[in-house]
Write a structure and sequence with these properties.
The chain has a seven-stranded mixed beta sheet. It is 23% helix and 31% strand. It is built from three helices and seven strands. With 163 residues, it is α+β, with helices and mostly antiparallel strands. The longest helix is centred in the middle third of the chain and has 15 residues. The two termini are 20 Å apart.
């Protein structure tokens, strides 16, 4: 799958694990108190190509010119008619160029193709740039909130969009 600005998505492979951890570490570094914890939070990224993805899910990555993962997006289908966007991360040097929008739209297309009528997501309360992106793409903050009990003391807002 490719986009208007020459980005290609592919399924994550086990060889991407180090790049994915690096990507998340760079993204989390922008937010005080956010930490990458591969032992508890990110088990599915240790072997991203082999880890089972629940509910017919997927994890896509896109690479930079040197072949390093620079962005990712995951999704699954927690219940009939509903898709959930997960793990949308864009490396800081690639932000503001439409890559996040490209990834979200690709997930939306895939969700529609699989019969989803609604896409939901949870986003850390500190990720305000992501919240602006979701709003621009038609997502509504529902008022739902959850605490994760992780090492980053994360709380997340719930967003959704009709497809």
């Amino acid at each position: 799958m490719s986009g208007a600005f020459d980005q290609t998505l592919r399924a994550a492979e086990d060889r991407d694990a180090q790049d994915l951890f690096g990507l998340l570490a760079l993204c989390f570094a922008d937010y005080p108190g956010c930490f990458v914890d591969p032992h508890d939070d990110l088990k599915d990224l240790r072997m991203p190509g082999s880890s089972p993805r629940p509910d017919d899910g997927l994890l896509w990555v896109t690479e930079d010119e040197s072949g390093r993962v620079c962005a990712c997006a995951a999704m699954d289908f927690p219940e009939a008619g509903i898709a959930e966007l997960r793990r949308l991360y864009v490396r800081p040097d690639r932000r503001g160029k439409g890559l996040g929008s490209f990834l979200v739209r690709a997930v939306e297309r895939h969700a529609r193709e699989k019969g989803a009528r609604r896409l939901v997501l949870w986003s850390d309360t500190r990720f305000t740039d992501a919240h602006r992106l979701y709003g621009k793409l038609g997502y509504t903050k529902t008022g739902g909130m959850r605490d994760l009990g992780d090492i980053s003391h994360s709380s997340e807002y719930h967003f959704e969009k009709a497809l």
